[in-house]
Description:
By secondary structure, the protein is α+β, with helices and mostly antiparallel strands. The protein contains 10 helices and 6 strands. The strands form 2 sheets. It has a 4-stranded antiparallel sheet with strand order 2-3-5-6, with no helix packed on it. Strands 1-4 form a two-stranded parallel ribbon.
Amino acid sequence: MNILTKITTLAVGILCALPAQAGTIDKDTALQKALKNNPSVLIGLADVSKAIGRHIQAGLVPNPEAVFEIENFAGDEDFSGFDATETTIGLEQKIEMGGKRQKRQAVTEQSYQITYQNALAQTVGLLAETDIYFIRVAVAQERLKLAEKRLSLADKTHATVKERVSAAAASDIQHTKVDIEQSAAKLAKTRAEVELAVAQSQLAKLIADENIDDVDTALNDIPDVPDRTKLLTAIENLPQVRAFAIASAQSQSELNLIKAEAIPDPTIGLGVRRFNETDSTALVAGISFPIPVFNRNQGAIYEANANVASMEAQSKLQDLSLRQSAVSAWDKLSLAHDEVTAYQNDIIPSAQRAYDQASKGYSAGRFSFLDLLDSQRTLYQVQSAYLDSILILHEAKSEIDVLMGAYERIIMDHLSSTQGNIK
């Protein structure tokens, strides 16, 4: 499938996007909605279409020029009237030398290939951002559930302490402290509700859908950490890397074009001249071309040579930057993977057991109120920290997916399905 076909099929797919529907959505649905509805995808397609237009224009031959001349009229004596007039009608055509048109086409063809790769990279970025905000909504939902659970625990503790205070088994200061914990739990719930609304708003903006009620994902499923060597190999085929490789080749093509532009282009003319004085006609032919004495495009050639060297250096800089980003993302994912595993298998179960023991022991009078309150706060803090690690894990996974081409494959699958639907 060539680039123009890809653009057409993707544009049709976007224009045929389904209307937004309220309800719970999963990640795949969110990504598809972003592809279909987000205006940045259309902007990228328009940029590629403009580049194709420039490529078409670059291949056009210069238009011929019509020439009309009239000589020897409105003078004096024998030339006072139009009897001695000479009239010439002809055409002139500029001939491009040095393969300028082909070299110009090479530059613009590379230009639209670069634009396509950049548009693809931009769309990959859109999907990654959508993925991240999808996870943020999912985490915000869990934070709200956690805040509600914390408030429920605070209410339960409040009731237990109140019962013991009434029975004179606990002091009033314990009742005051549990009131504070209950108020803090209410504030945490309100904060969680606001954070969820903000995350939903950001996700809705990305997928152009104002009717997000809930997202469905398995946050507790821990993604695998990819092989580090495979990750470093995969970044060599990223759209931005391909774009830079084409841009480096384009800098050389631009140098070739600029050198060709230093070659003079002759203009050839052919016409017919009529002599009124003798009532006769004759052919007229001519050729003209600039003489490259002063301007031989020296400055432009010098600049183009410098641009070639600059692109080579920028390519190396990009490679170093991507490798650093890949290593950083891999380290972040690996660390978060270990943290989440530890929370799931050890830390959270231990904190839950400690709270359960403190709650039962306090009711039986075996533990102090401070023990109960401390275990309750520890459980909440551990569960909150677990959600922090979950968010870091999935955000790092999203960055890894960008580097390993996962989102690009989603885009290509979308293109293929769109083309199939058209057929």
